[in-house]
Amino acid sequence: MGNNIIVIDDDVGTALFFKICLEDEGYQVNIYNDPNSLLEEFEPGIYDLLITDIRMPRINGFELASRVRIMDSKIKICLATAFEEYYQSIIKSYSDLSFNCIIRKPINKDNFLEIVESRLNESK
């Protein structure tokens, strides 16, 4: 089972909340608040899952996920958003990234962990 997760959210509090929830469950978690830093430091083959906020300055979550997927074709991706309806149309245009994993904000811890676990257990 995959244990290494990378979380990016430009809101420091949200990123820390994700990290604490996941580490309580035994996952190894690295957090970033700046998409450019993540892209500069990202190493393929280390992480099993990327959890990315969609709305971030400069690089949105879709763009970030696309770039990470190019660097690491095996990484699984979950998008976190408070505006799911608005993004459903955009998600369709990124169908090659298999964004079948949406984490709704505000976060419900149990729900969030269930989504993460099921995404990590998927074969693709």
What is this structure, in a nutshell?
Keywords: Phosphoprotein. This is Transcriptional regulatory protein ZraR. The protein is α/β, with parallel strands linked by helices and 124 residues long.
Q: What's the alpha carbon Rg, rounded to whole Å?
A: 13 Å
Number of domains: 1
The residue fraction in helices comes out at: 40-55%
Tell me, briefly, the overall form: globular
The CATH class is Alpha Beta
Strand adjacency order, main sheet: 2-1-3-4-5
- The biggest beta sheet, please? 5 strands, parallel
Work out the strand percent: 15-25%
Pfam family, one: Response_reg
Keywords: Phosphoprotein
Protein name: Transcriptional regulatory protein ZraR
Domain Response regulatory: 4-120
Main features:
single chain, about 120 residues, alpha/beta, Rossmann fold, 5 helices, about 45% helix, globular, Bact_response_regulator, Sig_transdc_resp-reg_receiver
Can you offer a commentary on this structure?
The protein is of the alpha/beta class and 124 residues long. It has one domain: Rossmann fold (3-Layer(aba) Sandwich), CATH 3.40.50. Helix content is 44%, strand content 19%. It has five helices and five strands; from the N terminus they run βαβαβαβαβα. It has helices spanning 12-24, 35-41, 61-71, 84-93, 109-121, and strands spanning 4-8, 28-32, 49-53, 76-81, 102-104. A five-stranded parallel β-sheet has the order 2-1-3-4-5, with helices on both faces. β3 (49-53), α3 and β4 (76-81) form a beta-alpha-beta unit. The model has no long low-confidence stretch (mean pLDDT 88). This is Transcriptional regulatory protein ZraR.
